[in-house]
Amino acid sequence: xxxxxxxxxxxxxxxxxxxxxxxxxxxxxxxxxxxxxxxxxxxxxxxxxxxxxxxxxxxxxxxxxxxxxxxxxxxxxxxxxxxxxxxxxxxxxxxxxxxxxxxxxxxxxxxxxxxxxxxxxxxxxxxxxxxxxxxxxxxxxxxxxxxxxxxxxxxxxxxxxxxxxxxxxxxxxxxxxxxxxxxxxxxxxxxxxxxxxxxxxxxxxxxxxxxxxxxxxxxxxxxxxxxxxxxxxxxxxxxxxxxxxxxxxxxxxxxxxxxxxxxxxxxxxxxxxxxxxxxxxxxxxxxxxxxxxxxxxxxxxxxxxxxxxxxxxxxxxxxxxxxxxxxxxxxxxxxxxxxxxxxxxxxxxxxxxxxxxxxxxxxxxxxxxxxxxxxxxxxxxxxxxxxxxxxxxxxxxxxxxxxxxxxxxxxx
Length: 412
Ligand SMILES: Cc1ncc(COP(=O)(O)O)c(C=O)c1O
Fold this sequence. Notes:
With 412 residues, the protein is α/β, with parallel strands linked by helices. The chain is 42% helix and 17% strand. The protein folds into two domains: 165 residues, Aspartate Aminotransferase, domain 1; 240 residues, 3-Layer(aba) Sandwich (Aspartate Aminotransferase, domain 2), CATH 3.40.640.10.
């Protein structure tokens, strides 16, 4: 901790220390993390779905190891068997799209998405939702909250507009000028605490975009890869985004890779100038090999049925838990294994995160709404671990209650 504070990132070290969760992750396996003192935690943060299949899934580790016997990162300039095969596999999961463009992380995929929309429309303005989150690179951070841009003097960027979530009229007002390139939205906004889109909201947004000549971009970085019960979150809402992005779990938590999928019309820049977006580490061949296996695993019937099992398990058990702890635990937001738990205090989820940590569970609060705990079970969790999670959750509630009472007293 001391060396990390000294040489790496003093702000992060003090943040976690003050939050009461001073963790240095040591061993990791499946859905379990062990800190340096040997304390075991069940991982329900999964770094936003990066560890959808758990940590170091043996199949994925084998794929990466055997990939290393043949491949390296490759050279982004040239066609490659691994890249072409992975692109084809991704496009086949979204047949209305035509090309997959690779990056190394989610923000880069968002960057590609926004540039693609600008190319396709010859317009500059980008609309996003208030409290949306799409990463920290130049264009992506410009779509997000000033919490992440102000410090670098990148707040109030020109040509970026934000509208309230679940308000199609506000979106229409800004689209009406017919000068917007794209509206980008997470299918369920993660960093905002997974508030659920109202019935018909996302469809209305897509239709409004098309009415006024803007592109509809869905950010599937946290909602893709079966986490909402279908491969891509947009499928469950009957959408066909012009452009969508995915990352995190695409590389199985062992080799970074992200992708931006685009329709044929949007992807014309790839025909005009294939080198218009270049990324040395984007679409590395090892990442493609791992990503290809991740996608294959996600399409197995037993994995799909397990996602449904885990979703139903937590839907039922969290409803019961809410009755038992109704004084503090007031709501569950859920679609598949994407879950946000609401607590009755402006910083309720901070206290709950700490209480869970003390009881062997790792789950964190939403940065942009600290009432809400992000609760993100993995897609291949087994029933015993689900039961253990709920037992530990129940055991943690008295401590959460105590922390919240102390907090209230201090606030008063
Ligand atoms: C919805 C969403 N989009 C984009 C990103 C950015 O991804 P990365 O951190 O890989 O750049 C994130 C990261 O948390 C995210 O949650």
